[in-house]
Amino acid sequence: MKAAVVGTGYVGLVTGVVLARLGHQVTCIDKDPEKVAKLAGGIPTIHEEGLGPMLSACIDEGRLTFTTAYDEGCPQADVVFIAVGTPEDSEGKANLTFVRAAAESIGDVISGRTVVVTKSTVPPGTNRKVKQWVADKAPAGTDIAVVSNPEFLRQGSAVYDTFHADRLIIGAEDIRAGDLVEKLFAPLEVPVLRTDLESAELIKYASNTFLAMKISFINEMAQIADRIGADVTKVAKGMGMDRRISPDFLKAGIGYGGSCFPKDTKALTRIAEEAGYEFTYGKATDHVNDQQKNLLVEKALFRFGSLKDMNITLLGLSFKPGTDDMREAPSLSIIESLMEEGANVTVYDPVAAEKAAPLLPETVVTANDLKESLDGSDSVFLVTEWDEFKQMDLSMIASLCSQNILFDERNVFTEEDVKSAGIEYHSVGRRS
Length: 432
Ligand code: UGA
Description:
Elements: E1 2-6, H1 10-21, E2 25-29, H2 33-40, H3 51-60, E3 64-67, E4 79-82, H4 97-109, E5 114-118, H5 126-137, E6 144-148, H6 158-163, E7 168-172, H7 175-185, E8 192-195, H8 197-228, H9 232-240, H10 261-274, H11 280-304, E9 311-315, H12 330-340, E10 344-348, H13 353-356, E11 365-366, H14 370-374, E12 379-382, H15 387-390, H16 395-400, E13 405-408, H17 415-421, E14 424-426
Parallel strand pairs: 1-2, 1-4, 2-3, 4-5, 5-6, 7-8, 9-10, 9-12, 10-11, 12-13, 13-14
Antiparallel strand pairs: 6-7
The site of uridine-5'-diphosphate-glucuronic acid has 20 residues, from α8.
């Protein structure tokens, strides 16, 4: 089949590459000519395992092209995907400017029957608007069908997640359009749930908010565990052994970040509010997460009294390992608080340093490697659980730092690891 994908961010690019890999003819459209040139040359614009080789192979085999021109992909396509961003607006709602612009640009170039599939995370009711936005620009009588097909891939494992998805949600009123999308993804052999448009749209927000809620829940358990002398990792393990709960997304830490959980939790709260309902869990999930991000600096202040002129090393900048994405990364708010307290901050991240550079205050020093980052440090804060940090020799802290102190905000190390290295160790919800 022929597909066009509008937007080459995480969702659009991975969708385009995977569809081409499945044997479809795919045109990816993006308004950014630089991005298009890079991608057309086989250079991935995001750090995503397995994406590079698949991208080049699909281009070489002639199944994947990139363009800035809607008319080079949309009129010919059986299915046109919208996979543009829906960032948070100033009121915490999803900003639909890019979705609308994409829908109108599609309308500008199509004429026959067109199936428009929204992959972007959009509030319930948006697909109906998309249909209208496309129709407003298309010639009279154009047959437009819309399908809601939310995406559930995680950054850092986007390719794997697409090939091993738990489910494919297809929300459509037009049965033929839904069938077409189901057929497009059939080679993936993923369980399919067909729904109406609004339910598909809500499934996406409900899923992300539920996962965010699990994280905030376990972060609160960590608070309780600290106070009563329990170990939150054991609590999570014991809870997760109950199949109804599942062990996933029960890792206490620094709080969730990224481009999805923070924005989608807020957006669902606003969606509910506009529908006349107060979404208590959404508000609480968000509140606990904000609190969690401040906790590390509070703990350090409690330990040291003052952070003024202390040399602090932050290990990890991206919001999680496996990605260089800095959106809503907890490291940024921690750095801001440390600067406010007068600390000297050195950071090291094996992948995200370049993306982080424009976001960091000028006085922050970016180290080139782990060793350099630890040299002369008074206290080390582990913020992102990259393998390089998980595998680090803890005796480096004793030998390179001026004080022997580690705040492990991802509970990476065990009591034994720490004991043998002889360092002062603080973690999350584990009595230390
Ligand atoms: C999330 C969802 O997991 C995807 O299903 C969804 O498609 C995506 O949002 C989206 O809407 O686009 P992502 O933001 O890439 O994916 O990252 P996750 O792996 O879910 O992690 C999110 C945050 O939660 C990270 O900051 C991570 O460190 C944190 N987290 C995760 C925890 O603190 N504890 C956990 O147990 C799990």
